[in-house]
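ok so for the tutorial part 2 we go from a plain amino acid sequence to predicted structure tokens. step 1 is just haveing the sequence, like this:
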Amino acid sequence: MALLRSKLRLSIASSAPLWQRGFATSKTLSKSAVVTGSGQGIGKAIALRLARDGFDICVNDLEVNSSMVNNVVAEIQSLGRKAIPVFADVTRLPQVEAMVEASVEGLGPLDVIVANAGIAQVQWGMDAQESDLQRLFEVNFYGVLYSDQVAARQFIKQGSGGKIINAASIVSFRPFLMLPIYSATKAAVRSLTQSLAMELAKDKITVNAYAPGVVDSHMWDTIDEGMGHINGRPKGQNFKDTVNSITLGRTSVPEDVAKMVSFLASADSDYVTGQTMMADGGMVFS
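step 2 — the prediction. this is what the tokens look like for a chain of 286 residues:
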């Protein structure tokens, strides 16, 4: 009899709708996501992939990138999803609060936030100035923290859980030469992701991060050029040398990263939290 009751409870639990289960993400109800820094590069690829997955998207970037943001919005709308542009500086908490408020007002309850906005700077650690530290940590760490805080408060207010997805990097596992402060900011994001995962679990909020490797993007163009100024190698050589260390033998494209985020934003990741997942072609093994 006890075994029968146990099987009955299991049957009831497994047949319950996804949205009634702990940490569940509905596959049928309308969904919305905020993607910061999504006017170009990885952020754009993430926004488009989530739109294809059925999300309505709040496309965020700085106002200076308004033309790119509007193009992304138009592309998402062409896929049959809703999209709104919101210009906000993620290093300013009031602007992040206004961004999430605008998303909820325009797209409905928030389900996912992707704290993607980030910058890099090439330099020796011994040459780093206070202004360098402030700039990199403000965007790469404070921007992620503020996005996480504001989204989490919205999730708690809604009472149905949610998913926080942060931009880390493989340098959060193994720092790169000439990227010391950038590496430190991404290690901080990885640690924050773990801490918030523990803190927010009771509210049915999962917190994870994605860790790209060498992505063929504007950021890596900047890194390659900066490294060349320091070590004297011609443009493209540092990038080529780094790509040669990738096990799969090719650089990543933004869509490779977007696939990882798609998983983390989906119901398939409902039992995953506190993880920083690498999509690097085998540069760093965990």
